[in-house]
Amino acid sequence: MRLLTLSTVSCFDARQPRRPAQGRALHGRPPSVDGAEHELAYERAAGLPTLSDGQAVCAPQRGHTENGMILPMSGGALIREARRRAGSTQAELARRMGTSQSAVARWENGVQAPAHDKVRRAVEACGFDLGVTITPRDDQTVTLFDEYLALTPQQRVERLLATLRVQQALQKARRVDPAA
Amino acid sequence: MSTLPPEGPAFDPLSILATLEAHGVAYVLIGAFAATIHGSPLVTAVADITPARDETNLRRLAEALRAMGARVWAAGEPQGLPFDCDAEALARADVWNLVTDHGRLDITFVPAGTRGYDDLAVDAAQFDIAGVAVPVAALADVIRSKEAAGREKDRAALPTLRRLLEEHRRRDTRGDR
Question: pTM to 2 decimals?
């Protein structure tokens, strides 16, 4: 059985269309809107207790934040992800779960939030296990995001290459002077 | 641990991608270098691509690889090992780890967690980088592939990439990206 992992730090914002970042869509296809909120995802967005606070993760009744934004990976997005990986249609998944295609569509499109058990069953019906992990946030790296996202894609590449040049110079220096 | 090979050609990804473009190769850039273009601060010295697998594209890909002097990359062989670079040979393997005159290039026809080029192209976006048109997989797809691959280096990168995606979405919501 393969494993699909849900992490509280992953993000598939259910109500946000998947759109290209600063680029041009290759196929001119309108962005798809997928997913519905997931309880574990909502827990952090809504400031609910987490395991890192020493408390059990609790599942809220609703998954919307105050501004309507839904964070991070939603149950519907997980279902869509599992179905996509399995190469199945909504109808095929619905048949395997003993539900209707329209129900699967509602979950995937964010019209209705699937319960955690439904998400697990759907993922299993696609041939995966659903793993849930909670990982510490790496705030040090995140502070770099402001800096990198302010750059153009070309500048990001130039920054990478500059970093590599520094690494390479350091490697050469170490080879010349192993004590360095 | 360094991302650089101890020897071998310097990583010049834009020359690799320009050569692919010049030969009309249909591909999507994936992996850590795709994430760089999306704003990832993680460092990589390998370009990963997923080409279309039809015969015409494989022929174009083979021509591009020959133009770049592509050899099979192997540990301990920083300059790579020669191979018969033609469409038929490329079709016989799912993954090619290569070193070119412009550095490392990995080709994966069906990255883990995806169904290959057609799947990734759906949400890919085209970026113009120094005059090179670069089709880049969506960050969500880069993450999807790394999640499915589950290698140690992929797992190490995932928290940062997920947070980056979260930041993208947050900025999209605010309309400042």
Answer: 0.65
